[in-house]
UniProtKB/TrEMBL annotation:
Gene3D superfamilies (alphabetical): CBS-domain (3.10.580.10), Clc chloride channel (1.10.3080.10)
Domain (CBS) ranges: 745-803
UniProt GO MF annotations: chloride channel activity; chloride:proton antiporter activity
CDD domains: CBS_pair_voltage-gated_CLC_euk_bac, ClC_6_like
Coiled coil (residue ranges): none
Protein name: Chloride channel protein
Pfam families given in the database record: CBS, Voltage_CLC
Region feature Disordered, mapped onto this chain: 1-41
């Protein structure tokens, strides 16, 4: 670890200008990293450095070297393994000819297909949500029923340790199966998936994030995680699942199953796919919370980086279909067909209008709760980092550095860790219930699903068991709606503290899980406690009669302090509770939680993205970056092609693994001395590979070997998994042939003068969803190229503008 850390160094800004940064190994959009400064010489402001993992390896570390596939996550690094998506259409001759041939009715038909696809996305997402809900209900019901019967059997005669072992064994078994599926078959399915989808919509290609295999493992994994009693929820995975469904349905085929249905071929490009993934994410939110409007706002606020008006209505349509589908099939499952009363996977229950009244003098109390939620959210994230650091440190000290690094990456040990957490969760919950003396009367109208009597008198149940011996969703609902007096303050205080620690430990396990429900449960517990204490310290208890409203405010404050959402979360909470009375207080609480939380640390998803070293572009450039220009951040010199280029040179450039360029300016003329030529267009690696695969050479076009004219369909058929250049055979004779790029290049790429300020470059790049931005001089000659990583390298740190280092993680 220490050896690796010593090799991470900031790029030089000193006077040693004789050194040059090495070429980027595996740079996705990379070019040579030498950057020219006016007046000659090398300018090091924009120089790229890499992390070298091959030098000075000690014998102890050499044991781990073969196992260590990635360097440890570091927010001071920017990974080179992530490629960019093409959210800007390449308007070459083929594209323009197809668009011009299409009639007005043709465009109307395309719009109808978009609506049909969004309907299918909502329907399938709702079905998946229904499957998850029923499976969790059945498995958790079996588990809790078996443990309850066992506890009741041994309470009178002794031997409750057997009940504890049974509970821990069932938890571990469920979690083991889910963790094996994730760790061994699809690691990208771990966690909620929201940060990955957020990156995808931002324009970053996360490997395997929207594949069918990922969807299957995600759904199976979240069922096992929730049924296994972990401090997790299923809402985040639903958002990821909806996005995967959208990515598959919109393409009309499955590349994993190698099945092409020959439909929706027009939408086989990143621009269209991005819009449908936005709809899928919104449909996932809608299915999870029963909040169609909240799903649209979530996709807008937290997910999508690009938006338009028509997309809003299509996303809302997908969200409505998702909610309707889920409710319809759940009503059939519950034996009440046609009663569409269940709002979503997370049923908060309806707040009665008489119960949810509040007074103006309670507004300051709500603001205080929002500030408390922001601080607890920041504390939770700090605790997550600290706890995992201490666990790894303890392993380092006890088992040596090599085993510690081995532990991080070995799937079998990741599964064992998840099983350990599941067993500890059951043990802690059992101990809390066993030692609790909070007994409440079990009335005729009690809504407790699995009431435990344990050592309580006949006709009473253990109140601590209501919180622990339940799925998290049911626990939240009981904290919202159980009448006053259902919990004593000690029960709520102990539960909040214990569940907080369990949630911190659980986050980061190799399981499919969300963080929404644990956050809501923690917030609901301390919010209800807050309401009870208010009624205790005041003389008039009628004012604070209903602790459920404080549970609702506390849940919103805690969740807002963690995920830092405002508008969308307000609408989600309002839709999920079925009452708009608390719209204003919830918004006030969420804004306070965000302001206070942002003062201490970033939101959970932003931290996750940083730790993964993803080149994520925020809405605006760093505030202090105006002194930087395109000339200083661009990469140069740039590999360019002529309008008519020799095939051998194209193959050699594409085969060069030390650069791995993905975009190439096409210039009027290139010379041997590498003088820049005037820009004529831009062509992508993927386009060149398709041209090489179909042997689109000038000599073939003018001979009897002439084949049919290439169409956009040929490029769409190869999308999104274009073959590697190594799989394309080019003979020695073919290397001497020429390739005419005029018809296939984008003749109107976006360009900027080299004196353009960084914020202006950033705004153009970010708003248009570009992958490459050509930098030209006064004579329109190519002098550099700006890519996502060139812009993402700069961020505002504690000491001002800082530059991240690029590493092959």
């Amino acid at each position: 670890m220490a050896n690796i850390a010593k090799k991470v160094s900031w790029s030089s800004r000193g006077d040693d200008r004789g050194e040059r940064a090495p070429l980027l190994n595996g740079a996705e959009d990379g070019k040579h990293s030498n950057r020219q400064f006016s007046g000659g010489g090398m300018f090091h402001v924009g120089s790229r450095s890499t992390v070298d993992l091959e030098e000075e390896i000690t014998p102890e570390e050499d044991i781990v070297k073969s196992r260590l596939k990635e360097i440890p996550h570091n927010e001071k690094l920017l990974s080179l393994k992530y490629e960019s998506l093409d959210y800007d259409n390449s308007e070459n001759q083929l594209f323009l000819e197809e668009e011009r041939r299409m009639s007005h009715m043709g465009f109307r038909c395309l719009e109808i297909r978009r609506w049909v696809i969004c309907g299918l996305i909502g329907f399938l997402t709702g079905l998946i949500a229904c499957l998850i809900d029923i499976a969790v209900e059945e498995l958790a019901g079996y588990k809790y029923s078996a443990v309850k019967q066992n506890i009741e059997k041994f309470t009178e005669f002794g031997g409750l340790s057997i009940s504890l072992i049974l509970w821990a064994a069932l938890n571990s078994a469920f979690v083991m199966v889910g963790a094996i599926a994730v760790a061994f078959f699809e690691p990208i399915a771990a966690g909620s998936g929201i940060p990955q989808i957020k990156c995808y919509l931002n324009g970053v290609k996360i490997p395997c994030v929207v594949r069918l295999k990922t969807l299957a493992i995600k759904v199976f994994g979240v069922i096992c995680s929730v049924a296994g009693g972990l401090a997790v929820g299923k809402e985040g995975p639903m958002i990821h699942s909806g996005a995967v469904v959208a990515a598959g349905v919109s393409q009309g085929r499955s590349t994993s199953l190698k099945k092409d249905f020959k439909i929706f071929e027009y939408f086989r490009r990143d621009t269209e796919k991005r819009d449908f993934v936005s709809a899928g994410a919104a449909a996932g939110v809608s299915a999870a919370f029963g909040a169609p409007v909240g799903g649209v706002l979530f996709s807008l606020e937290e997910g999508a980086s690009f938006w338009n008006q028509m997309l809003t209505w299509r996303i809302f349509f997908a969200s409505m279909i998702s909610t309707f589908t889920l409710n319809f099939f759940l009503s059939i499952y519950h034996g009440k067909p046609g009663e569409l009363s269940s709002p979503g996977l997370i049923n908060f229950g309806r707040f009665d209008s008489d119960t949810v009244q509040y007074n103006l003098y309670e507004i300051p109390l709500f603001i205080i709760m929002g500030a408390l939620g922001g601080m607890l959210g920041a504390l939770l994230k700090k605790s997550m980092s600290f706890l995992h650091f201490m666990l790894q440190l303890s392993l380092s000290l006890s088992l040596s550095l090599s085993l510690s690094l081995w532990y991080i990456h070995r799937p079998c040990l990741q599964v064992m860790e998840a099983m350990l957490v599941a067993a500890v969760t059951a043990t802690v919950a059992f101990a809390m219930i066993y030692f609790s003396n909070d007994c409440q009367p079990l009335g005729q109208d009690s809504t407790e699903e699995y009431p435990l009597q344990l050592f309580c008198a006949d006709g009473e149940y253990n109140s601590m068991a209501t919180a622990f011996f339940n799925t998290p969703e049911r626990s939240v609902r009981s904290l919202f709606h159980n009448p006053p007096g259902s919990y004593n303050p000690l029960t709520l205080g102990v539960f909040t503290l214990v569940y907080f620690v369990l949630a911190v430990w659980t986050y980061g396990l190799t399981v499919s899980a969300g963080v929404f429900i644990p956050s809501l449960l923690i917030g609901a517990a301390w919010g209800r406690l807050f309401g009870i204490l208010l009624s205790t310290i005041t003389s008039s208890q009628s004012i604070w009669a209903d602790p459920g409203k404080y549970a609702l405010i506390g849940a919103a404050a805690q969740l807002g302090g963690i995920v830092r959402m405002t508008l969308s979360l307000t609408v989600i909470m309002v839709e999920a509770t079925g009452n708009v009375t608390y719209g204003f207080p919830i918004m006030l609480v969420l804004m306070t939680a965000k302001i206070v939380g942002d003062y201490f640390i970033e939101g959970l998803y932003d931290i996750h993205i940083k730790l993964q070293s993803v080149p994520f572009l925020h809405w605006d450039a760093p505030p202090t970056s105006h002194w930087l220009t395109a000339r200083e951040v661009m990469s140069s010199p740039v590999t360019c092609f002529n309008r008519v280029e020799r095939v051998g040179r194209i193959v050699d450039v594409l085969s060069n693994t030390s650069t791995n360029h993905n975009g190439f300016p096409v210039v009027a003329h290139t010379t041997e001395n590498e003088e820049p030529g005037k820009i004529c267009g831009l062509i992508l690696r993927s386009q060149l590979i398709v041209l090489l695969k179909h042997k689109v050479f000038v000599e073939r076009a003018s001979s009897r070997l002439s084949q049919r004219r290439l169409q956009l369909k040929d490029f769409r058929d190869a999308y999104p998994r274009f073959p590697p250049i190594q799989s394309i055979h080019v003979s020695q004779d073919e290397r001497e042939c020429m390739m005419d790029l005029n018809e296939f290049m984008n003749p109107t790429p976006y360009t900027v003068p080299q004196e353009t300020s960084l914020p202006r470059v950033f705004k153009l790049f970010r708003a248009l969803g570009l992958r490459h931005l050509v930098v030209v001089d006064d004579e329109n000659r190519v002098v550099g190229l700006v890519t996502r990583k060139d812009l993402a390298r700069y961020h505002l740190g504690k000491d001002g503008l800082e530059e991240l280092q690029l590493a092959q993680t």
